[in-house]
Please model this.
Amino acid sequence: MEIPRTLHVHLTDNEPEHDSPRHIVVSTDQNFIQIEAAGYNACNSADDNQPGNGYMAIAAIEVWEGELRLIVWSDINQEDPTHIISLEGARITARKCEYCGGSCPSDHDYACDGFVGDIDGLYSEEA
Model:
């Protein structure tokens, strides 16, 4: 299944008393997913640009040197990103064992007895 290159979304506020919908555009290429929003812009981009042209990104997701990361430009007056957040801590393999704090959920060969026997039912289907 091919991912669309551009997706237009109208986000509405979760609080009904704030009627402030936002036009968001998510665009992709093979190296980058970028997020643009009408009324928001990047430092060196013309303010008359429209979302979807690739010049107004305020956030992006990329893989850099093997690391998945989120890049945010939250200050229109600053050219460099204001935040670069590694998402590696969100990897499934980073999940810690509820019993010993180790890597048992992703490394069953060296799992602790608590995880293997699930003595308290922390990993059962009902939990």
The two ends are 34 Å apart (CA to CA). Helices lie at 113-117. Residues 91-120 form one domain.
